[in-house]
Amino acid sequence: MEQKEPMELGLQLLKDINIVRHNEFRFINAEFGFVTSFSKMETTIFKIGQPYRLQEGRIAIITNGRARVLINLIEYIFRPNYISLIAPGSIIQIIETSQDFDAHMMAIEHNFLPVSGKEEFFAHFLQRKKNLLLPLTTTEQVQIENFITVMWDVLQEPVFRKEVIQHLLAGLLYNIEYIAKNKGQSESSPLTHQNDIFQRFISLVNTYSKTERNVSFYADKLCLTPRYLNTVIRQASQQTVMDWINQSIILEAKVLLKHSNRLVYQISDELNFPNPSFFSKFFKRMTGMTPQEYQKN
């Protein structure tokens, strides 16, 4: 049987007109996607509690309601008048939403941006895969909504005005950059040493947990002793280093179990378990069900 890669929420998949009931609330092509109302298009893709891997970077402007969302193991609360930037390759899991939750959303293929130095420009996307969630003032809300309105109007033209959208998008991201910097300068307490270590540790776990499960590996990467790393992570998160590593492995396992046709023993091999029995016992201990039960649930 030909193996399918784990499903990624990418623009190629989202172009399928059958995954939503109301296509008039979205524009999708191979480079750029824009959803003007997440709730009104009534997608069949998202399911509460199901993890997905995002192929492209995302911008979400929350307009109504609330949502609890895990992004690379970290929980975020999406609420009105917040804007979120999510790194490419992130694993996202919606834990719960209010019935009235809604948002504008964009998906951006990396090369779509019409600027040089994309690595610096997408600092919030690419540096340590750090995600961003910002509250907006009333003035900032109006500015962002003005960008959204103009972009959506341009997208209604019969011919895709690529260069116009590219430069409006660049302007929007530069504006978000200014907002983030201003809020960072006004914060009374900068990022603590403890939280800085925690953020760097989580980024390493998201990158290496499929192959590296030893505390010493992560301590070496951070130039710390294993004992000190465990102490800092427990103080910052009330969880141990191994707790976070195990959660990351389970998240990868869930994506593979739901979005590929790999057999359990193949997933066990991919996640570097010594044998399928060990993987199944680990999965059941962490989730309360076997891998097969999770696939069928």
From TrEMBL:
Signal sequence segment: none
Superkingdom, natural source: Bacteria
Gene3D superfamilies per UniProt: Homeodomain-like (1.10.10.60)
UniProt keyword terms in alphabetical order: DNA-binding, Transcription, Transcription regulation
Keyword Transcription regulation: yes
Pfam families: HTH_18
Alphabetized SMART domains for the sequence: HTH_ARAC
All residue ranges annotated as the HTH araC/xylS-type domain in the record: 199-297
GO MF term list: DNA-binding transcription factor activity; sequence-specific DNA binding
Identification of the protein by name: Helix-turn-helix domain-containing protein
Species of provenance: Bacteroides faecis
